[in-house]
Design goal:
heterodimer, A: alpha/beta, seven-stranded mixed sheet, about 40% helix, elongated, B: alpha/beta, 25 strands
Chain lengths: ~725, ~725
């Protein structure tokens, strides 16, 4: 009878779970994804899909959108025109699909755009910004900028930052090359940059081996830089030919030149090679750092910037559903409404809004090859959008913080490369929520940068000091015609750190050092990790000696303070200027061994002793009671003594669970012993004996089960 | 009887197993030949080399050997003679298991042995011989010291560029060594504009009237005298010069230092300077470590050649590790160490060989003081790091580097530093620091930024210094440099990670590490001012639980494990070393109070728990509550005691005492309960037997456990 009732209870519970979960799945919001999951572009497509799944999982983990989950409906567009068209048709014909994200290359995207437009389905193309592809459709939005804006920004950068006056432009003979040259040429004329051009191979065409020799017998007088608008294979071959003919002028390439295997194409000739990019993780915000870390942890590979754009695309669509409702036209309306910095979406790749043609408005980031990879140039331009600066433009221009080119104001941002190598951790002061560290800090920059006012955000005031060790001008490096400088310091200080003790004593801690400028925001100084020079050496000296080195993480990122600092021109909802931070995190692991002896062994002995109570004949109630009470008292005193070495926290630590379990078990034991005694005193010997036996078995089993479960959980979590 | 037999049988079995394990390990070791004079007049030198080699071999073997196999030294006595050396070499080279040979102290035996090694293709490392004549350009021979020619050239540069002499008289012996040295010196001198006059003197039996008849007449117009010879000749010549009133500075080659130079000079050592291939005073931390170990193990000072031999074995072991246990492979590895970029990081410096097989070493200039030699206030060090070479012009302009004969040298200032402890105000074990008061002084010559010295382990903002005196002393001898002296009174808090493994039987070493804030060892070298350090024991060490058991002082160079983001740095490249003067105060914890405050209460708690065994087994409740109270007492006591110490990642000796107490008491509680069960089941006889056994077992176990713990704590090295 009893068993039957248990069974029916279980069945009822299972049925109600199924009933509850099925409608939840049915009520999710469906977003279409069309990406190349077969063919040569498969890896790019998979990367987009991985990023979208990451975002969908995060949204769902946070409770979904308006209480409903986000569900991705994935179609393989094979990276071809036909495949893209078919995928678009399939997705748009499913009434549940609220919007579509995807299509990696321009050609498949161009084929799919009419389908989305006709079916009136909003589509977000993470890697496309060509106005030709988007065909001015009100239903299509690009995740990256329009390439003509890249060409224009390059012209401004070359003139205003690098101070070149005359450039020679090589552009591909295809539509892409000609479009960029058109935009660059027009802008160059407006900003006073002299230009002349030579057309070379377009996409898919090989570059003749003697192209430079035939077309550029000598560099025209006055030309002080070369610009290349093309693709990586032909562009790289062109740059190699230029260098082989001993033309050592700086070369500026468009983003497509820098894509693909450019380093192989140019060979050893990477000196003074610059390129434009729609985004670089080095200059991204904390959200982008978070995305990159999560992506790496989950997939074991580095994501591309387009993966980040796709991630942001899904975030925007989710926000559209939340703000405007789960309807195709409402989503389009929301996206179309993101048309100015004041109404932008705060994404992982920046403050996002669209231009009139549907392409994303992004600042162009200029990169320079350092140690075989593109890293941000020492100066960057950023379009001024914030009202406070626009209101005080003349003054900012006078101070050199803003340059105006062709009536567009730009912040001139100094990029400072920073690196830290730990020397010693003098004190991991868990109770004081701080740590004392000694380390070497170095900075590299170009031009006049106020590096003396860089400070650690988490430094305890008055408890940090630095000694300059070396200061030099870096040989063989210059940027924009200016020398690169290097200074290194020895640093010693106390830094705040809120330790997470949830898993104590199985815990791992992350000790961060957060370097930022005292008062200059990211529109003036951006800190970037000097990855090329940081060597990840394990630190042997971590005191007290209960920690061991596990690893380190470094990143530079921008963030916003949750304050407008009382800015009188601030309007609610407006984004404040970001600040830049360089963060290095030291990961350390607590050495468990001494805790096994000083924490778990005494606790284990107390529990073991209390188990002995079950060996004492039930007639000796007084002995039984006093033994188990003594054990309980011991656990209590021990818990108090142990807690005194730790800070007061608002949660239970893993060690607390061990003690709580002991309290519960001992209380249960006392109860059991007393019940046995009651039965015995009432002369219910048989029941008393049965209960005593049951208590012996269950208590020992229960104790073992609880502690094994706790330990297994703790070890698993600590890994 | 039968029990005794059983134990004997078990012991025999254990011995056999150990022997079986040990034999293959010995058979599998790598064999390195050692040929040194272990008889005859050079025996002490040979023994010194052998001791250094044994030290290195033991270190390598303790660290797991090379590729899991041990290093075994096969020692032969070369008697310090050509014949003995040839025979020893033939024996060693004839053993196919010998992978390389280290040894031969003097040039003559080495020269006799070299052809044997060359013809048998055995790589040989000569720790103390650098003459190209001996090395004979053999591909198989490598030297641990610099060539005499390099030494002579550096002396010429130092005399001209640092001491600014313009005309020198060079006395050289008429043997091969003297002529080679003179040739190298004269050529270099000519290229750098130092005028020389050479005079050959006999290598043996110097005439008593040499100075009077041949030297004094040529001294007018001469700024300094250079002696390139051996100790017997050099000492006699210098003494004669001084006795005839010559007060010119004298510069000697390294060989004049060997032997009993000071006795020969008979008090005429003023303004005497020599060139040396190495001095422990300006060595690295590894050299300090070697010297300390050697001193502890053999109770005598090692010679630099002992250190070179130690490094030689390190080089050979590294060759086996990287290239394999093969004679040709070891030779190739050694031959590949041919530039600073791919040098071996040895205890005597960054080591690489010249083309002739001699080691490239900076020559250290030393000045006679008291009974020995101290590093001269200025030193020259060859510029090899790329960063300095890239910025040569700027460094030359700032006077950091001088260029002589197109060779750039760092001009290194030697600063003598000393500390006398005044008081240790607080030994804060829990805070991993100590507060101390002491006097610091610095002696230097020329320009030195003394205000920017600091203690590497000082707690920022918790150090205060007061200048006591600042004096510039006149030169100690004619034409010598003026010496600056400054002394400070210091008070501060210094970081110190206490090693508490043996608490409360522990001994601690409190360090003070003085270094320059930003100048590296290419600019400033700190040397311990041993002559002026008195090293009085300190009685004021607070809290009063410590006593002074000694001190140690040294100057050394070290490298930070960072390139400071140097943009010109390439992985694997060595960064510039930094110099530190370290004084260590060794203190011993007074055990007596711990006997009363730690061991007595613990002992009483355990003793009380013994009493449970005297209580009749029928009184179970009393027994139980007594032993439980003891357990709780130990627990509370352990917690209270741990609060005064920092959390550490290991077990301290005191923890072991408590852990033993837990285990013993748990065992006792279990025993008492089992006795009670037997008693309640009316199995009186078994209960009585168990109770008796418990009495004996528990008492014996407790005594044995604590005696073993205490003996091990007292006997462990302090």
């Amino acid at each position: 009878m009893n068993r039957n009732s248990h069974r029916s209870m279980l069945l009822l519970a299972a049925a109600s779970w199924v009933l509850c979960s099925a409608p939840a799945a049915a009520r999710s919001y469906v977003i279409g994804v069309a990406a190349p999951l077969s063919g040569p572009r498969r890896s790019s497509g998979e990367m987009l899909l991985n990023a979208l799944r990451l975002k969908a999982d995060r949204i769902n983990a946070d409770g979904g959108v308006l209480g409903r989950r986000i569900e991705l409906l994935v179609q393989d567009d094979e990276g071809t025109i036909d495949g893209a068209r078919q995928a678009a048709v399939k997705l748009t014909s499913d009434r549940r699909v609220l919007a579509v994200i995807g299509h990696y290359d321009s050609e498949p995207a161009a084929a799919a755009v009419p389908v989305y437009t006709h079916a009136q389905v909003p589509a977000f193309l993470p890697s496309i910004g060509d106005s030709a592809v988007m065909a001015r459709s009100p239903w299509v939005f690009g995740g990256t900028y329009d390439l003509t804006s890249e060409a224009q920004s390059m012209a401004v950068f070359i003139k205003a930052v690098c101070r070149h006056s005359s450039v020679l432009v090589f552009h591909g003979g295809d539509e892409y090359g000609r479009n960029l040259w058109g935009a660059f040429g027009a802008k160059a004329r407006r900003v006073g940059l002299k230009v002349r051009d030579i057309e070379f191979a377009g996409a898919g065409q090989g570059l003749p081996g003697d192209f430079v020799e035939r077309n550029l017998p000598a560099v025209p007088a006055g030309v002080d830089a070369i610009v290349v608008f093309g693709h990586s294979a032909s562009g790289g071959a062109l740059i190699r030919q230029l260098r082989e003919r001993r033309i050592s002028l700086p070369v500026y390439g468009s983003s497509r030149v820098a894509s693909g295997d450019i380093m192989t194409a140019v060979g050893p000739y990477t000196k003074d090679l610059y390129a434009a990019f729609p985004f670089m993780f080095d200059l991204g915000n904390l959200q982008s750092v978070e995305f990159r870390k999560a992506y790496r942890d989950r997939h074991g590979a580095q994501p591309s910037v387009f993966a980040l754009f796709a991630y942001d695309g899904l975030g925007m669509i989710a926000e559209a559903i939340r703000a405007k409702g789960p309807e195709r036209s409402a989503i389009r309306g929301y996206l179309a409404g993101l048309d100015a910095p004041t109404s932008a979406y705060d994404g992982a790749s920046g403050t996002l809004f669209f231009g009139k043609d549907g392409a994303m408005v992004r600042d162009t980031v200029m990169g320079l090859v350092m140690n075989g990879v593109f890293r941000p140039c020492y100066q960057q331009l950023r379009v001024v959008t914030e009202r406070h600066t626009l209101d005080n433009l003349a003054e900012k221009v006078k101070l050199g913080e803003v340059v105006v080119s062709d009536q567009t104001p730009f912040f001139v941002i100094d990029v400072v490369y920073a690196g830290i190598e730990y020397y010693r951790i003098d004190q991991v002061a868990v109770k004081d929520l701080s740590f004392d560290a000694e380390f070497f800090l170095w900075l590299k920059w170009s031009g006049d940068v106020d590096v003396d006012n860089l400070q650690f955000l988490n430094e305890v005031p008055g408890k940090g000091y630095r000694i300059e060790m070396r200061r030099a001008i870096v040989p063989d490096q210059w940027d924009g015609g200016r020398d690169v400088r290097w200074v290194s310091y020895r640093y010693k200080g106390t830094f705040l750190h809120p330790y997470d003790l949830h898993h104590f004593p199985f815990d791992r801690q992350e000790l961060p050092l957060l370097l930022a400028h005292k008062n200059r925001n990211a529109n003036k100084i951006q800190l970037v990790v000097d990855m090329g020079n940081i060597v990840d050496r394990p630190i042997g000296d971590i005191y007290p000696q209960e920690w061991r080195y596990v690893g380190r993480d470094d990143f530079g990122a921008t963030f916003r303070y949750a304050s407008a600092f009382g800015n009188p021109t601030y309007r609610p909802g407006e984004a404040q200027a970001p600040y830049s931070v360089y963060q290095t995190t030291l990961r350390i692991q607590r050495i468990l061994f001494p805790y096994l002896v000083t924490l778990f062994l005494p606790l284990g002995i107390l529990i073991f002793v209390s188990l002995l109570v079950l060996l004492i004949p039930k007639e000796q109630f007084s002995s039984r009671n006093s033994l188990v009470m003594s054990s309980l008292l011991g656990v209590l005193v021990y818990h108090m003594a142990q807690a005194r070495s730790l800070p007061q926290v608002g949660y239970l630590m893993q060690s607390d669970l061990y003690f709580v379990a002991a309290y519960m078990l001992l209380a249960f034991l006392i109860l059991g012993v007393n019940l046995v005694n009651i039965r015995h005193s009432r002369h219910q010997e048989e029941r008393a004996a049965w209960l005593d036996m049951w208590l012996r078995r269950e208590f020992i089993l229960g104790t073992l089960a609880v502690y094994v479960a706790l330990s297994v959980y703790a070890v698993m979590v600590s890994r | 009887m039968s029990r005794l037999r059983r134990w004997a049988r078990a012991g025999l079995r254990l011995a056999l197993v150990s022997a079986a394990l040990a034999v293959p390990a010995a058979a599998g070791s790598y064999r390195i030949g050692v040929a040194v004079p272990l008889s005859g007049p050079r025996r002490p030198r040979g023994e010194m080399l052998l001791r250094a080699l044994r030290l290195k071999a033991d270190e390598l073997n303790a660290a797991g050997g090379v590729g899991g196999r041990g290093i075994e030294l096969l020692v032969r006595d070369d008697r310090g003679t050509a014949e003995g050396a040839r025979k020893a070499a033939a024996e060693l080279a004839g053993d196919p298991l010998v992978l390389a040979v280290i040894g031969h102290y003097d040039s003559e035996p080495a020269a006799a042995a070299v052809p044997v090694y060359s013809s048998d293709h055995v790589p040989v490392f000569l720790p103390s011989v650098g003459d190209s004549g001996v090395l004979a350009h053999s591909r198989w021979v490598f030297s641990g010291t610099c060539s005499g020619r390099d030494e002579a050239q550096t002396m010429a540069v130092f005399i001209k560029a640092v001491r600014l002499h313009s005309r020198v008289l060079v006395l050289h012996t008429g043997d091969q060594y003297g002529r080679d040295m003179w040739d190298a010196f004269a050529k270099k001198a000519e290229r750098i504009g130092l005028r020389t006059r050479g005079l050959e003197v006999p290598a043996k039996n110097v005439p008593a009237d040499l100075a009077a008849h041949r030297l004094l007449p040529v001294l007018p117009g001469i700024d300094a005298v250079v002696v390139l010879g051996h100790s017997a000749t050099g000492g006699v010549v210098i003494r004669q010069l001084r006795e005839h009133g010559c007060r010119l500075p004298v510069w000697g080659s390294s060989r004049i230092v060997s032997g009993d130079l000071m006795a020969t000079l008979g008090g005429h050592a003023e303004d005497l300077h020599v060139a040396l291939p190495f001095m422990f005073d300006v060595g690295s931390l590894k050299a300090v470590e070697f010297r300390r170990k050697y001193l502890e193990r053999y109770a005598s000072e090692p010679h630099p050649f002992g250190l070179f031999a130690y490094d030689g074995l390190g080089l050979v072991a590294e060759a086996i590790r990287t290239k394999g246990p093969d004679r040709a492979a070891i030779r190739d590895y050694l031959a590949g160490l041919d530039s600073p970029a791919n040098a071996y990081d040895g205890a005597s410096g960054r080591l690489f060989f010249n083309r002739d097989g001699s080691m490239a070493r900076d020559t250290i200039m030393a000045t006679a003081f008291g009974d020995g030699f101290c590093p001269t206030f200025q030193q020259l060090r060859l510029v090899t790091d790329r960063h300095s070479l890239d910025n040569l012009a700027g460094k030359v302009k700032r006077g950091e580097i001088i260029v002589a004969d197109q060779v750039p040298y760092f001009l290194v200032s030697v600063v003598y530093a000393g500390i006398e402890w005044y008081r240790v105000d607080q030994v804060s074990v829990k805070d991993l620091s100590f507060d101390a008061e002491f006097f610091v002084w610095l002696n230097w010559s020329g320009e030195f930024d003394a205000d920017n010295v600091q203690f590497l382990n000082e707690v920022a903002g918790k150090v205060q210094r007061v200048e006591l005196r600042r004096v510039t002393a006149p030169p100690a001898f004619r034409g010598g440099p003026r010496i600056h002296w400054v002394s400070y009174r210091y008070k501060g808090t210094f970081l110190h990670p206490y090693d508490l493994h043996r608490f409360p039987f522990d001994r601690q070493e409190l360090h003070l590490r003085l270094s320059h804030k930003d100048l590296d060892a290419d600019r400033v070298l700190f040397v311990a001012d041993r002559i002026n350090i008195v090293g009085r024991p300190i009685s004021d060490i607070y809290p009063h639980e410590w006593r002074d058991v000694g001190r140690e002082d040294y100057g050394a160079t070290f490298r930070y494990a960072s390139a400071f983001g140097d943009p010109t740095y390439r992985p694997g490249e060595a960064q510039a070393p930094y110099s530190v003067y370290q004084t260590t105060l060794r203190i011993q914890r007074l055990l007596f109070p711990y006997l009363v405050t730690l061991f007595l209460p613990l002992g009483i708690l355990i003793f009380v728990s013994f009493l449970v065994l005297l209580i009749p087994k029928e009184q179970f409740s009393t027994r139980n509550s007594l032993v439980m109270s003891s357990l709780l007492g130990v627990l509370v006591y352990h917690m209270a005691q741990a609060r005064s110490l920092p959390q550490v990642g290991y077990l301290m000796t005191s923890d072991l005492y408590f852990v033993s107490a837990y285990m013993l008491l748990a065992f006792l509680i279990l025993g008492v309960n089992v006795v009670n069960i037997l008693h309640s089941r009316k199995q009186e006889e078994r209960a009585a037997r168990l109770d008796l056994w418990l009495r004996r077992g528990f008492i014996a176990g407790t005594l044995a456990a604590y005696a073993a713990l205490t003996l091990s704590a007292m006997q462990a090295p302090r």
